[in-house]
Amino acid sequence: MQTVTLIPVMQSKISIEAETITPNNFAGKTREEIENITIWEGNHKTRLFEFFKIALEGKDSPENTKIIINGSIPRVKRVGEGMTDGMILINGDVDMHVGAKMQGGVITVKGNADSWAGREMKGGEIIIGGDAGYYLGAGYRGESCGMRGGKIIVFGDVKDYAGEHICGGEILIKGSAGLMPGISNNGGIITIEGNTEIPGAEMKKGTIKINGVVETLVPSYKQEDDEEIDGIVYNKYTGDVVAGGKGSLYIKK
């Protein structure tokens, strides 16, 4: 097992692009090699040791590599981007795009995650102990698909457009969601334990299940017979018919 611990020693006032913080990139390297891995502070090329104190135990493959970030990194973006194996534990908050395009492994955020967490992810799991920002599990601007696989669990609330253009995978939100979760859903599964508004607009296929209050429902859904799932009775709707959709929207009675 290889364990790499990063402790923030300086907080930048501008965004840091740190897609190089992955088990794939750290596996098998010495502490000195990890310290000199490139990150970007704005348009300035720098290295990890400028912002983190780094400790290393062991040496192993990506699937047996764990990265622990002990502290909040609210200006550090793209942590875990594209990772295929291993684990990342963030003991604090993290900036945008955490776990973007990840294919495997597990990312755990003990605090809050900013927007686009799990952007276009294909596999693996992201667990967020606090709240998440806008566009959770969505696609970036101009992308036809958001999540394609994997699972995201958020124990707090999320902001607007969770699961926009989701094409696969699963999102579980333990709290409430903002506007339009699952907009243009094209095959993913979204469960919201709390409240939300305007879910499933332009959904073509997939499933959205809501256990809280839905403030507004788009009128272009066809109501079906009630359905019981895990002992809970739901109003079932299919649509969005405007988009020719055949998705399933369940709202707790």
What is the typical, i.e. mean, pLDDT? 97
| Residue windows where pLDDT falls under 50 for at least 5 positions | none
Order of helices and strands: EEHHEEEEEEEEEEEEEEEE
Rg on CA atoms, Å: 19 Å
Tell me the strand percentage band: 25-35%
- Protein structure class: mainly beta
Count, helices: 2
| Helix amount | under 10%
**Sheet bearing the most strands, described?**
14 strands, mixed
Overall 3D form: elongated
The count of strands amounts to: 18
Distance between the termini: 48 Å
Characterization of this structure:
The protein is built from 2 helices and 18 strands. The model has no long low-confidence stretch (mean pLDDT 97). The chain is mainly β. It has helices at 23-26, 31-35, and strands spanning 2-8, 16-17, 38-41, 44-47, 52-57, 65-69, 76-77, 87-90, 106-109, 125-128, 151-154, 170-173, 186-192, 205-210, 221-223, 227-229, 232-239, 247-252. Strand 17 (232-239) and strand 18 (247-252) form a beta hairpin. The strands form 2 sheets. Strands 1, 5, 6, 8, 9, 10, 11, 12, 13, 14, 15, 16, 17 and 18 form a 14-stranded mixed sheet that branches.
What tags apply to this protein structure?
single chain; 253 residues; mainly beta; 14-stranded mixed β-sheet; four-stranded mixed β-sheet; 33% strand
Task: Give the helix/strand layout.
Blueprint: E1 2-8, E2 16-17, H1 23-26, H2 31-35, E3 38-41, E4 44-47, E5 52-57, E6 65-69, E7 76-77, E8 87-90, E9 106-109, E10 125-128, E11 151-154, E12 170-173, E13 186-192, E14 205-210, E15 221-223, E16 227-229, E17 232-239, E18 247-252
Parallel strand pairs: 1-6, 2-7, 6-8, 8-9, 9-10, 10-11, 11-12, 12-13, 13-14, 14-18
Antiparallel strand pairs: 1-5, 2-3, 3-4, 15-17, 16-17, 17-18
